[in-house]
Every structure is written in structure tokens, then in C-alpha cells.
Recover the amino acids of this structure.
């Protein structure tokens, strides 16, 4: 029993990190209908920022979160201005963004590979190898910290979206661009802000990921597959959905990983994607898109 | 009631690369006036409202609001100047609750205390909304949604309201209520430009009536005269020819 509880708790911590990785992606899709295949590469950029700050200046990756967020936010603003803004009104926008973001991902991937080579890296702050014991339950400090930080960032995001004027404006815009414009919301600004916010969240997730997983530039291919399955399962554009899907699947994956074999655990994400597309294509919390 | 507040000069407009829907339209609106535009489908009635509201950019001509040209401004900028557009699909945020919908209606107000006061104010005008504050707008009845739309519009104290098909999809008693609200709003000095499929109902609440066909204003008269004009009755109000 304890053994199962142990696995669930580990899955939960990891799930929260996945949830943070997915929130930015689903936010950007929800507001702008951009299928941001470049999202994981922003996460990687955040991870590299945290990694180098740690290696060069000894800065703790958790403390590096604001810096990674700013770097990714600025990068996001540049990419948005260059690539996405001018076609925002176009009818085939979502379809176009799949190619545009894929291209962006390839360019950033190439840039990262050029500078950092394909070396596997991991940030190793002192607590990376520590662990707590609560009774018989073993809790690796790195995963516990990353889970808790993710959770607090997600809660902060949810509060922002629920209670701030700009937050409600973001939700309003994601419901209908035209209607938002009709009540006087500056939709262009809201879109730019949401894109920056999404990328900044990717940066935050990157800092945490840097000491939970080992990473290298091409790692983003692995992540986009997992993240897309979470976002589709939750319902495209639904943050609550993505978070729920992330926690659910990651707990399931760690159970499968333990009782079948670790190599089977990735399959959980894709099997879930497969099943949800068959029985409920709009996702758990999603609506049909017109 | 003689001062002209809105003036369209030679406005030509159309969608994307399509043909001109509006062809050199001239139109004026006075302070406190309710003006109803009638005409067959495809006459360009809704298009006029969209062109004024900035949702559709006119290809030619100008839209003067208090002598300032609105052409080229973004929709939200036009809205901030005091022109409120109520489209026919209601334009509510379905999965935001009523209080959030009202909050967003006052997005352009920077003084949040003032916004709170105004929300209180409109809730006394539309008391039913007070009971629905935490309900999703999309789950309310058609009549309640219609009230929320008016509530949202008057929060900004606009000078002009552009209303597209207020009666669409509403039960007859709710339609009556909607027009009562429109008349009350106009009494406070707001000018209203109305497009209404139910031409008789629209005209009977209006001061002036405009008949449009094929993207042009055919003629404009006192609403009562339009209602009683035999030729218009035959062509646009659905009265059978009596021999």
C-alpha cells in the first residue's frame, strides 16, 4: 500500500511540473489559436538560462526562475512580433501557426545546438540528490521542490486569470476575439501579453525542468508530443483541463512504469490521446471549436 | 434634438475582396434620436452598423462623430469615443459570469471605483441581473441575456448605441420589453441607430425610418410616415396589394 502511495506521490510531483509546462501552451492556444509547437523549445531556453546561471554564478535554479521567465518572455515577444502578429486575423491562422511554430522551433533548436552542442546537461544544486522521508515514504527533494513551485505558479496564474482585470480580459478574448474588441479590449495587446506570459511560464518550467530531467537541444521533440497529448486530453485552451490531464496521466504513467516496465510509461500519454480522440474529441474540459 | 451627432458621408464598404455592400451611403443621426433602418435581406443594414463601429473598415468616405473622422480607428478606439455596438449574435462572453461580463463592459474605464458605482447603478435598472451575478451568461434565458446586453452598453454611458436586430430569437413579450428599454435609453439623451427585421415593431418605437435597398439609402422620413406609406408597405412591410 505504502509502495503504491509512494509511486502516486512521485507521479504527482512530476505531474505538477508537466502541468506547468502545459499551461503556457494551452494559454497561448486558448487566446490566440496558435498551436505553439515551439513551446518546449522555450522551456529548453529557460532550462539553459537556469543551467548557465548555476554553473557560472552558482545561482539556485529556483531563484533563477524570474530571470528565466524574463529571458523567455522577451524572446517570446520578439518571436510574436516577427512571426505571428501580422496574420492574426487570417482565417487559416491555426493551421498556419503549426508550420510557423515548427519552423521557429527548428531555428531555435539549431541555435541552441550550435552554442551548446548535443551534450546531456542537468543542473545539480545541492538538494538534487537529497531526499526526505515521511514514515516509509521517500521523497526526492528536487521533485518535491519542483512540484511545489509548479503548484504555486499555477495557482498564481489561476488567481490572476480569475481576479485581475487583465486576467478576465484574457479569458474574454479567448472566448471571442470580436466580442472582446466590441467591449473595448485592446485585443492586440492582450494577445501579445498572453504570448509573453505563456513563454514566461515556459521559462519558469524550464528552470525547474533543468534539475528534474537531463536535457539537450533536441529534447523538445519528446516534450511537444507529451505536452500536446496533455493539452488535447484536457481540452484545447483549457488550463484546468491541461493541469488535470497532466496530474492524472503522470500518476498513471508512473504506476505503469513501476508495474509493467519504465519503457511503457511514455505510452500512457499517447494511448490516452488515442482514446480521448475516439470517445471525446473536444477533450475533458473543452468545447467544440467552431 | 436638432444637433447632428453622427454623419456618414459617401461611405462605401464591403467584406474582404468582395463587392461593395454599401454604395456611397449618406446618413445622419441626431442627439436623442432613434433611427430605424429597414430593408430587404442583403440591403447592407447590418453592414452600416459594422462600418460605423469599426469592425469593417470603409473603403471610401468618412464617418464623422462630433466632427471627428472615425475611419481608420480600431473598433475599441471608436468604442472609447462613446459609440457602442450591440451585434445580433449578442456578443456576450458565455462562460464568464454576469458580474465578469459587466466588469469587462467597463474595461475602458480606468477608474475602478467609478466602474463599481456604475455597475451598482445598472443593477438597479435591471434588478434581475443582481440575482444572476455569479451565473454564466450563456446559461441565462434570452430575455435575461438581452437585459445584460443593455446593461453592458449603458455602463459606458455611450452617446450612440448601434443595435443590430434586438428582437432576434426573442419571445414577443421579451421583444416588447427590449423596445421599452431602447426607448428609455433614448430618453436619457443617447442616440440610437437600429436595424430591425421586424420593421413595423422597429419603426413604431423610432423617430425616423430609413429604407435601404441594394446598399443605398432609398429614402428617409419620419417613422410614422414610413409606416403609413403605401408603397413601402407593399415593398418592405409585407402588406398585400389590395385591388
Amino acid at each position: 500500500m505504502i509502495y503504491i502511495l509512494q509511486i502516486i506521490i512521485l507521479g504527482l510531483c512530476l505531474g505538477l511540473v508537466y502541468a506547468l509546462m502545459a499551461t503556457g501552451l494551452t494559454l497561448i492556444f486558448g487566446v490566440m489559436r496558435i498551436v505553439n509547437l515551439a513551446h518546449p523549445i522555450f522551456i529548453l531556453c529557460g532550462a539553459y538560462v537556469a543551467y548557465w546561471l548555476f554553473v557560472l554564478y552558482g545561482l539556485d535554479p529556483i531563484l533563477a526562475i524570474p530571470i528565466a521567465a524574463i529571458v523567455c518572455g522577451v524572446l517570446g515577444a520578439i518571436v510574436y512580433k516577427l512571426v505571428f502578429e501580422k496574420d492574426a486575423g487570417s482565417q487559416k491562422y491555426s493551421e498556419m501557426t503549426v508550420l510557423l511554430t515548427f519552423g521557429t522551433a527548428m531555428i531555435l533548436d539549431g541555435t541552441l545546438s550550435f552554442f551548446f552542442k548535443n551534450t546531456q546537461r542537468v543542473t545539480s544544486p545541492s538538494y538534487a540528490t537529497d531526499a526526505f522521508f515521511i514514515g516509509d515514504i521517500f521523497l526526492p527533494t528536487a521533485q518535491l521542490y519542483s512540484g511545489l513551485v509548479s503548484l504555486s505558479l499555477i495557482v498564481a496564474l489561476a488567481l490572476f486569470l480569475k481576479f485581475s482585470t487583465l486576467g478576465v480580459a484574457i479569458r474574454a478574448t479567448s472566448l471571442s476575439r470580436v466580442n472582446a474588441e466590441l467591449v473595448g479590449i485592446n485585443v492586440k495587446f492582450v494577445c501579445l501579453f498572453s504570448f509573453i506570459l505563456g513563454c514566461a511560464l515556459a521559462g519558469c518550467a524550464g528552470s525547474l525542468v533543468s534539475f528534474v530531467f537531463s536535457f539537450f537541444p533536441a529534447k523538445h521533440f519528446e516534450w511537444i508530443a507529451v505536452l500536446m497529448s496533455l493539452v488535447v486530453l484536457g481540452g484545447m485552451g483549457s488550463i484546468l483541463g491541461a493541469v488535470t490531464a497532466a496530474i492524472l496521466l503522470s500518476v498513471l504513467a508512473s504506476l505503469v512504469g513501476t508495474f509493467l516496465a519504465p519503457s511503457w510509461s511514455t505510452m500512457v500519454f499517447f494511448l490516452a490521446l488515442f482514446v480521448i480522440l475516439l470517445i471525446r474529441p473536444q477533450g475533458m474540459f473543452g468545447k467544440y471549436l467552431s | 434634438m436638432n444637433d447632428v451627432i453622427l454623419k456618414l458621408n459617401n461611405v462605401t464598404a464591403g467584406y474582404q475582396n468582395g463587392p461593395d455592400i454599401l454604395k456611397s451611403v449618406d446618413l445622419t443621426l441626431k442627439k436623442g434620436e432613434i433611427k430605424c433602418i429597414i430593408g430587404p435581406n442583403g440591403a447592407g443594414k447590418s453592414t452600416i452598423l459594422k462600418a460605423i463601429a469599426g469592425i469593417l473598415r470603409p473603403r471610401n468616405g468618412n464617418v464623422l462623430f462630433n466632427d471627428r473622422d472615425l475611419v481608420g480607428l480600431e473598433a475599441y478606439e471608436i468604442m472609447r469615443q462613446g459609440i457602442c455596438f450591440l451585434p445580433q449574435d449578442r456578443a456576450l462572453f458565455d462562460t464568464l459570469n454576469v458580474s465578469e461580463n459587466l466588469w469587462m463592459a467597463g474595461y475602458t474605464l480606468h477608474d475602478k471605483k467609478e466602474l463599481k458605482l456604475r455597475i451598482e447603478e445598472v443593477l438597479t435598472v435591471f434588478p434581475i441581473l443582481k440575482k444572476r451575478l455569479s451565473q454564466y451568461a450563456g446559461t441565462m434565458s434570452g430575455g435575461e441575456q438581452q437585459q445584460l446586453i443593455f446593461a453592458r452598453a449603458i455602463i459606458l454611458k455611450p452617446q450612440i448605441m448601434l443595435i443590430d436586430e434586438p428582437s432576434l430569437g426573442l419571445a414577443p413579450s421579451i421583444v416588447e420589453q427590449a423596445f421599452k428599454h431602447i426607448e428609455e435609453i433614448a430618453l436619457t439623451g443617447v442616440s440610437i441607430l437600429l436595424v430591425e427585421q421586424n420593421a413595423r415593431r422597429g419603426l413604431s418605437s423610432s423617430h425616423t425610418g430609413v429604407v435601404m435597398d441594394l446598399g443605398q439609402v432609398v429614402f428617409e422620413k419620419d417613422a410614422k410616415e414610413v409606416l403609413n406609406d403605401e408603397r413601402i408597405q407593399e415593398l418592405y412591410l409585407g402588406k398585400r396589394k389590395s385591388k
User: Anything to note?
Assistant: Chain B has a mean pLDDT of 87. The interface with chain A takes residues 53, 55, 74-76, 79-80, 85, 87, 91-96, 100, 103-105, 107-108, 112, 152, 156 of chain B (CB under 8 Å).
